[in-house]
Amino acid sequence: MKTAEAARSAGIKTSTIRFYERQGLIEAQSRSSAGYRQFTNEDVRRLKFIKRAQELGFSLAEIRRFLAFSNQRVPLNRDVVLVGWEKLDDLNRRIQALTRMRSALEGLLSNVCDISEAIECPIIHSLADFD
After folding, report:
1. What is the pTM of this model?
2. What is the DSSP code (8-state) at residue 112?
3. Cα(11)–Cα(74) distance, integer angstroms
4. Alpha-carbon torsion, ordered 76, 12, 21, 31, to 10 deg
5. With CB atoms 3.0 to 4.6 Å apart as the test, which of 60, 79, 111, 113 could cross-link to 122 if both were Cys?
6. pLDDT in tens, 48-83
7. Pick from 24, 28, 34: which is nearest to 7 by CA?
């Protein structure tokens, strides 16, 4: 199938397929006599995998690792699980950082400026003095 049909089947844009090709995540297996890229059902399956992994928050580098595992004759569970644990650790760090940011913002908002007063807003003051 041509690029546009593969994109439709995978639920992505044709430009996304070209991007994935440039990133080395997918490669058209052949070209038609007119020079059009030809994709197989397995390629569409791979495109769907990439899209779903991105939706779950995996980076292209992490997806590349998953794809390398799947290219092995027998992908090892421990390799795939290791990538999953690394991602979980990353997500937990990001959640902790976001929680700290939320607490800081809640603290700032608890000192909300009275708009009727002509004084410097404590939020602006706190942000300006942040070290």
Report:
1. 0.67
2. -
3. 29
4. 110
5. 111
6. 999 999 998 889 998 998 888 776 666 567 777 888
7. 28
